Amino acid sequence: MKRSLLLSATCALLLAGCGGGEEAQVTVHQAPVFLRGDPAPFEIRLAQGDEPLTDYQVTATFTMEKMDHGEMIYELTERGEGIYGAPVAVPMQGEWVIDIDAEKDGRTIDRTLTADVRGG
Ligand SMILES: [Cu+2]
Asked: What are the YtkA-like domain coordinates in residue numbering (predicted)?
């Protein structure tokens, strides 16, 4: 965990140093749904301005802020047009923290999303 904080700090500095160019956007494309432990589709979208960011290696780490469910780590598969997803089986409804790490050719994007996951 300490290491990933360090990496994201480095990343922020590098991105700031690049100047020009908008920051990458990481948005939820399909929100996770609670299906009593069965998998439901989860998708995010990576973009920079109008351009989808393709060919990234993306992982999503799910944790619960107020309870210890450990870390659920998913490798997201690219679906095209900057969309990456995986079936995700959350063990309970509630507020989940989703840490997105994307990497391509040494460029990393690290974003923390939250999702209020409800039954589907
Ligand atoms: Cu919980």
From this structure: 23-100
State the distance from the centre of ligand 1 to the C-alpha of 43, rounded, in angstroms: 21
Ligand 1 centroid to residue 102 C-alpha, Å: 26
Q: Ligand 1 is a single-atom ion; what residues have CB below 5 A from it? A: 64, 67, 92
CA 18 – ligand 1 centroid, Å: 40
What number does CATH give the domain 2-117?
A: 2.60.40.10
The answer to whether 107 and 98 are in contact (CB under 8 A) is: no
Reading the chain (120 residues) residue by residue, the pLDDT tens digits are: 455 555 555 555 555 444 446 899 999 999 999 999 899 999 999 999 999 999 999 999 999 988 999 999 999 999 999 999 999 999 999 999 999 999 999 999 999 999 999 997
Kindly list the domain boundaries of the chain, sorted by start residue.
2-117
